[in-house]
Amino acid sequence: MRHYRFAPLQELLRLFFPAICYGCGQPLEGDEQSLCVHCMSHLPLARNAAIVDNATELRLMGRVHFDAAASYMYFKQGLVSQRIVHAIKYRGDEALGLRMGLLMGRDLAQCGRFDSVDCLVPVPLHRSKLWQRGYNQSLLLCQGIAKTFPRPIVADALVRVIATDTQTDKDRIGRMDNIHKAFMVRNVSALQGRHVLLVDDVLTTGATLSECADVVLALPDTKVSIATLTLANG
Ligand SMILES: [Zn+2]
Predict the structure, then answer these.
(1) 17 CA to middle of ligand 1, Å?
(2) Ligand 1 centroid to 228 CA: how many Å?
(3) CA 78 to ligand 1 center in whole angstroms
(4) How far is the CA of 203 from the centre of ligand 1 (A)?
(5) Cα 221 to ligand 1 centroid, rounded to whole Å
(6) Calpha distance 125→32 (Å, rounded)
(7) Which CATH topology does 43-232 take?
(8) Between helices 207-217 and 172-179, what is the axis angle to 10°?
């Protein structure tokens, strides 16, 4: 029999409000956080950082002038990766965001293709969305990445000037129009002459990242690489 009298607060809370796994809905046990061991070991991994012309790069090719690009997982409706993104984005699961970023950073560091990156730049949210949500999920990922791929985070150099509508119901062309001129550079000196790693949670058509990369690449002597937590179906 377990002696809950001396259990830490977290264990006590779990007694009354058992945390469940985002992946399978089963109660979490022991040290498990957000995801159970089974779901954590069955993520739909892309892990393509080491591969030249990987699926992420093919998606962006012709649209973004990047040095290298990578995604950690595949994003599909109903898969655990969708629930992970949802938890990081809308449920305020900061620990999960940091953990996923840390895994992304480990791959970026190990493969050697991102070695010349100078700084990490999260794709910014419009201030209305930031106010609504309270945090930027891409910044959370950057904070995780920096633990295993140590680079300074430059979070305030880019600004999103247009609050775009949700893109889910728009076709590819519509998305491009919708995103046009959505970003601008607020702090030139923070980015000029740097190799910037743009970080986002989901790569779909690449329209958002393309807009973001364009404003960075308009500055002298800049290079752009890209890391996304997930790669969605095009
Ligand atoms: Zn699970």
Answers:
(1) 17
(2) 23
(3) 13
(4) 24
(5) 45
(6) 30
(7) Rossmann fold (3.40.50)
(8) 40
Span(s) in the chain for CATH 3.40.50.2020: 43-232
Residues 173-191 pLDDT 10s = 445 554 457 899 999 999 9
Tell me the pLDDT tens digit for each residue of 214-225: 999 999 999 999
Rg (C-alpha) for the chain, rounded Å, is 19
The alpha carbon of 29 and the centre of ligand 1 are apart by a number of angstroms equal to 10
Phi-psi region of 93 (alpha: psi -120 to 50; beta: other; left: phi over 0): beta
Distance 47 CA to ligand 1 centre (A): 20
Spatial separation of the C-alpha atoms in residues 112 and 114, rounded to whole Å? 5
| Dihedral sign computed on CA atoms, order 23, 24, 26, 31 | negative
